[in-house]
Amino acid sequence: MKDSEGNIYGTSFDESSMIFTMVDEAFNGLSVKPFFVDENGTLGCELVIDNVTRYFKSADGEAGYLYINKWGRLSNCMISESSLFQNHARLFTGRGFIWSKSIPLLKDNVLIGCGPNTFVYEFPQEDYIGKENSGFENQVITKPHNLYLQIAIQTGVVSCILFIAVFIIYAIDCIKLYRKSTFDSYMEQMGVFLFIGVLGYMLSGIINDSSIAVAPLFWIVLGTGFACNRIVRGIKKQ
Predict the structure, then answer these.
(1) Residues 6 or more apart whose Cβ sits within 8 Å of residue 177
(2) In a designed cystine with 44, which of 37, 95, 158, 215 is the match (CB 3.0 to 4.6 A)?
């Protein structure tokens, strides 16, 4: 056994179980059991760390090993880049982990993004250790659980900025229009309720994604809100 720098670590071997155990106390709880994966003599090994078993297979029968994931697929183990929430992986029922791995993806999706509904391909699904430590070991991460990360990664950071800008313009318009209103008219009351609905959607987007069932309603409400504001402004000018 040796590490990436070539340092060799002692092992003990049990002939009855064919298991190699690390001698160094720093690796207590780690053992390796070699085996042949198929009749062609392809090498594999069973790695046990703290009573969790993982399986690896030689890439070509001679050098290198690939991880055999939960679905029996050969895959490279990776430690993906993290940001902001790396120390709060279980924040908001695991969203902290997803956000910490999603934020670094922004730098590669500034202008056009990876494409609508393609987040599942952009996310580092091969970060098995990170997913396991965060409770996602048997899952494929399909969404970022954040409306703004979803937009920024799939259609570009620029599109997310423009989306937020539209809301800010609408919010400023509503505040200026209704802050001194008496709400005597139906249109004023409707305008405020529409603004509350849009604001609620934007706030819920912090911990939820856009879904095809709800998004059309949001755009209808937002468009109606702009129209309502225009009508109210016209009435006040009379």
Answers:
(1) 191, 229, 232, 233
(2) 37
Q: What is the pLDDT of residues 50-103, one digit of tens each?
A: 888 889 988 765 667 888 888 888 888 888 888 887 777 777 778 999 999 999
Q: Name residue, tokens 């620029």.
A: 158
- 3-class DSSP string for the chain: CECCCCCECCEEEECCCCEEEECCHHHCCEEEEEEECCCCCCEEEEEEECCEEEEEEECCCCCCEEEECCCCCEECCCCCCCCCCCCCCCHHHHHHHHHHHHHHHHHHCCCCCCCCCCHHHHCCCCCHHHHHHCCCCCCCCCCCCCHHHHHHHHHCHHHHHHHHHHHHHHHHHHHHHHCCCCCCCHHHHHHHHHHHHHHHHHHHCCCCCCCCCCHHHHHHHHHHHHHHHHHHHHHHHC
Burial letters for 76-109: b for 16+ Cβ neighbours within 10 Å, e otherwise? eeeebebeebeeebebeebbbbbbbbbbebbeeb
